[in-house]
Amino acid sequence: MKPATAAKKLGIHLPSAPAEFQETALTREQFQALQSDPPEWLAELRRTGPHPKQEVARKLGVSTSGLLRAGITEPLTTAEIRELLEDQPEWLRQERATHAQVVADTVARKAAAADAARR
User: Fold this and answer.
1) Residue range 89-97: average pLDDT?
2) Is 59 exposed, middle or buried (0-12, 13-18, 19+ CB in 10 A)?
3) Residues 65 and 101 in one domain
4) In 1-77, where does DSSP find H-type helix?
5) Using 50, 70 and 90 to split pLDDT, how confident is the model at 117?
6) Which of 17, 86, 98, 107 could form a disulfide with 21 if both were Cys (CB 3.0 to 4.6 A apart)?
7) Given a cut of 90, is residue 116 above it in pLDDT?
8) Do the beta carbons of residue 36 and residue 56 sit within 8 Å?
């Protein structure tokens, strides 16, 4: 598995990982070992960041598009994410509401489709 793929599946920012991880392809067994018994560097990256945009969006409760609309293009640390959640600027409140509405609409659409399929 390529390092970029492994980083994405592990939810970490690849440039913040050790050089050895960035330069070495992983076998399936090595990847599973990282998941089941993460080394200290991986645990620390997951705990404090910096986090990739997908993880930042998930932690903030917004879409990755919402991050871009807000001008957030760089990875954020856990402390920066916590600060945004505590002080919630207007853009974050708006994007969280938009994201929640999109998720609710998707759930409703899937429920309606499942209901129609049962008939």
Assistant:
1) 97
2) middle
3) yes
4) 3-10, 19-23, 28-36, 40-48, 53-60, 64-69
5) confident
6) 17
7) no
8) no
